[in-house]
Amino acid sequence: MQFQDYYAILGVPKDASADAIKKAYRKLARQYHPDVSQAPDASARMAEINEANDVLGDAEKRAAYDAVGAQAWAQGARSQDDVRPPPGWNSGFEFTGAPGDERAGDHSAFFEELFGRAARAQRGSGRSGGGGGGAMRGSDHHARIEIDLADAYSGAERAITLRGAHLDAQGQVVGDERTLQVKIPAGVRDGQMIRLAGQGSPGLGGGPAGDLLLEVQLRSDARWRAEGADVIQRLFASPWELALGAEVTVTTPGGSTLTVTIPAGSNVGRKLRLKGRGLPAPSASSVAGDLYLELAAAIPSPVTDTQRTAWRTLADAYPGFNPRA
Length: 325
Prior knowledge:
Structural class: alpha+beta
CATH topology of the largest domain: HSP40/DNAj peptide-binding domain
Number of strands: 12
Helix content: 25-40%
Number of helices: 8
Strand content: 15-25%
CATH class of the largest domain: Mainly Beta
CATH architecture of the largest domain: Sandwich
Oligomer: single chain
């Protein structure tokens, strides 16, 4: 994924004030707007300029962008194309406004990944609106949070820290931070929203506060992954267990310990289905997912002469066998 250098696009330094960013954007917009520019790449340049302004002109987005950039470069990126965002790079940032504010498809893949996924998922969710007697509901906020798969199995209550920002009197971005206790329901899926009523912006004129919408992301784990309600877990087996069959003990992501039969003649990649052992049903009207044990081979290294002889004997027992055929 290519990292977008929004400061370079607008031609401003990284400590530019909000006023300097606004002036730079207006100047470039007058130069590259497709209605007035004769440049062949005017439309593409204008899209870049608009995206850069969308981010740097918003204190919360700019703070998130600066934090992500600092983490990526600290990991040793040599160029924009070499940027590899760290795990959890797009979680924990809080943005004002209900998801749905972004124009899906009008931005780069980098922008969509950092800001746009929740927007597409919750288009049309609650926004600030008028009320009787001049009262106005506060704006909703949205953020992404990472949780462990075990918490999605059992449910949990976790303290989460969200990072936002605002502009000070000099037009500089100042970071905000708050910690909330969040109840994670059992069976929550990747991409699902948790709504915290009244945790958005305060209302005006006696109107109610907006809500905070938290988009759940399941933390990546080398041992297992979720696909909707189903969970895929790698199950390592020895070559003789795959060939001859075996009964093995497995601990699931939900903490259960089970005895599972590996059928004789199993190949690497075969999936053993455990019905109903995936993510639990979040409600009485839904169904629990399944757990799939994906077989992988654990190959012991021959260290002793006896072990090396055993492997040679195995090879001799299969003359002509070609695993690449």
